[in-house]
């Protein structure tokens, strides 16, 4: 007698979406979470894009525990003393059906897990899965740290996050390379709601998301600032190998970002309410494991389905999209009595025909471009230098030509035209 | 980031920052460190990269490690280049870090 039809490990967005779809398909689902409640181990660095929920939870935006709807988005290109910002705002994103939201992941993940429970899944918290149960090369369940804690089912869905020990144990991952990962660190900073509204130029439940490049010193990465209701989040994403090789600690880089003249006035006087850290699967498509095995599917961050493509920085939506596909494929395999990799292969084909794999495949070069020298080292210095020269009025000298300014800034920063052209062409091919 | 930019706002202490997160500490360590490997390690990336600053070099060339305020992020074992120096698991169910506003 098996414990369930489907065991889902991890009640983050991927796991809850998987449990939800499998339970709706009439399957007995156990959703195992190691934290005391869903989302208690999770944090993120920006915006939740919920459109993918439209099918799963119609009108989710009327009930999801969001902090603010992002109606203003900025990309800030920064040097130590300068900042060039592209600032976009639209009222449309502040109206139904909305675009993106900020939220506390413990709230949001708990809410989505409740939807899975409403659909009939059994949520078991405070339980760490310690390994897989296998029979003849087929995964048949999991071992937990509870007494007599073995759970059996024909399908296990690994939604166990970026470190996915289950996918590794199942032999689905290749060699793990630290260069494919970044470390996210974040401070949630308390400020009165009116102060946030004033500083960020928003009202009501409208909010701002600022993404920053050039704020991480010699360590490749990026930064972010975004608004919650009565807190703001300030954080960084840092390349693991560079961080390990360097001699500057993450909180020092974060302190420097908070002291930058473009950021300091936003965070001034705030009190740190929570400091958090998490690893991010940065390399996307190029680091993905095999996502289907005998009796096992891998979803969300566990499958590296996090998109770090500069213009687009998303994860929760890919987690929900892949989780929902995994739950459906698992239910179908159970119905057909074939939980082998062949019986579960519908998961891969569902993802191939959805935004999850299509975006990841098309943008597979993007993470490398974003972490490369052009974006990290040259773009911030050259862009800020050009803008400073363009806007600086230097009478009685006549105005210099724009072309001359660009050339002199490139030369001053050691950026050769042919290198810029090569990376520019790569970027155009990737994003264009 | 320019080092000469003075920080106009008092930076909170690392201890205060770490105390802002909740840790439900279990009596058993979920990560163990065999620091016989650490003495020969030239990288020692865990020391700078761990966001909780849990790896501390000792005067005799070793490293000591505290597990109590661990974020369970995985950074240390990902950057560790000494085979088997860090044994990494998750804490017992219900224990370890608990985020509320992240």
Helix content of chain A: 25-40%
Distance between the termini of chain A: 54 Å
Main β sheet profile of chain A: 9 strands, mixed
Summarize the main sheet of chain B: 2 strands, antiparallel
Structure description:
The complex is a heterodimer of chains A (432) and B (102). In chain A, 34% of the residues lie in helices and 26% in strands. With 432 residues, chain A is α+β, with helices and mostly antiparallel strands. In chain A, strands 3, 4, 5, 6, 12, 13, 14, 15 and 16 form a 9-stranded mixed sheet that branches. A 6-stranded mixed sheet of chain A has the order 7-2-1-11-18-17, covered by helices on one side. Chain A has a 3-stranded antiparallel sheet with strand order 8-9-10. In chain A, 56% of the residues are buried. Chain B is α+β, with helices and mostly antiparallel strands and 102 residues long. Chain B has 3 helices and 6 strands, in the order H-E-E-H-E-E-H-E-E. In chain B, the strands form 3 sheets. Chain B has a two-stranded antiparallel ribbon with strand order 1-6. Chain B starts with 13 loop residues before the first helix and ends with a strand. Classes of the chains: A alpha+beta (432), B alpha+beta (102).
């Amino acid at each position: 007698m098996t414990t369930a039809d489907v065991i889902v490990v991890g009640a983050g967005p991927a796991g809850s979406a998987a449990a939800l779809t499998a339970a709706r398909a009439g399957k007995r689902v156990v959703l195992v979470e190691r934290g005391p409640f869903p989302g208690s181990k999770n944090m993120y660095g920006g915006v939740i894009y919920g459109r993918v929920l439209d099918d799963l939870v119609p009108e989710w935006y009327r009930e999801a525990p969001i902090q603010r709807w992002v109606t203003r988005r900025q990309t800030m290109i920064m040097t130590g003393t300068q900042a060039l910002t592209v600032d976009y705002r639209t009222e449309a994103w502040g109206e139904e059906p909305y675009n993106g939201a900020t939220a506390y992941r413990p709230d949001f993940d708990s809410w989505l897990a409740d939807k899975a429970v409403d659909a009939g899944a059994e949520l078991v918290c405070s339980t760490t899965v310690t390994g897989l149960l296998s029979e003849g090369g087929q995964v048949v369940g999991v071992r937990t740290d509870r007494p007599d804690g073995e759970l059996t089912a024909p399908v296990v869905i690994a939604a166990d996050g970026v470190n996915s020990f289950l996918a590794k144990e199942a032999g689905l991952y290749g060699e793990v390379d630290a260069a494919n990962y970044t470390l996210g660190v974040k401070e949630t900073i308390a400020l009165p709601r009116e102060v946030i509204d004033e500083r960020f130029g928003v009202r009501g439940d409208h909010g701002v998301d600022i993404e920053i490049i050039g704020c991480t010193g010699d360590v490749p990465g990026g930064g972010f600032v975004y608004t919650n209701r009565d807190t703001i989040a300030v954080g960084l994403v840092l390349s693991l190998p560079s961080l390990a090789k360097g001699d500057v600690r993450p909180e020092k880089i974060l302190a420097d970002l908070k002291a930058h003249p473009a950021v300091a006035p936003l965070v001034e006087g705030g009190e740190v309410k929570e400091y958090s850290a998490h690893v991010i699967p940065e390399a996307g498509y190029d680091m993905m494991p095999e996502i289907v095995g005998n009796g096992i599917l891998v979803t969300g961050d566990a499958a590296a389905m996090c998109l770090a493509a500069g213009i687009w920085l998303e994860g929760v939506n890919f987690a929900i999209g892949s989780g929902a596909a995994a739950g459906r494929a698992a239910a179908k395999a159970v119905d057909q009595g074939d939980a082998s990799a062949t019986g579960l292969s519908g998961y891969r084909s569902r993802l191939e025909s959805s935004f999850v794999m299509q975006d990841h495949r098309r943008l597979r070069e993007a993470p490398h471009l974003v972490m490369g020298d052009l974006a990290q080292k040259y773009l911030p210095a050259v862009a800020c230098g050009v803008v400073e020269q363009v806007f600086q009025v230097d009478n009685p000298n006549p105005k210099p030509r724009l072309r001359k300014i660009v050339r002199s800034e490139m030369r001053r920063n050691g950026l050769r035209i042919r290198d810029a052209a090569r990376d520019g062409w790569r970027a155009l091919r990737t994003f264009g | 980031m320019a080092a000469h930019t003075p920080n106009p706002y008092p930076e909170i202490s690392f201890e205060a920052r770490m105390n802002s997160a909740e840790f439900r500490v279990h009596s058993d360590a979920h990560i163990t460190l065999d620091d016989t490997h650490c003495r020969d390690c030239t990288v020692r990336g865990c020391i700078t990269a761990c966001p909780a600053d849990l790896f501390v070099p000792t005067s005799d060339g070793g490293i000591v490690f505290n597990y109590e305020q661990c974020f369970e992020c995985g950074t240390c074992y990902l950057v560790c280049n000494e085979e088997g120096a860090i044994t990494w698991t998750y804490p017992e169910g219900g224990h370890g870090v608990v985020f509320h506003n992240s």
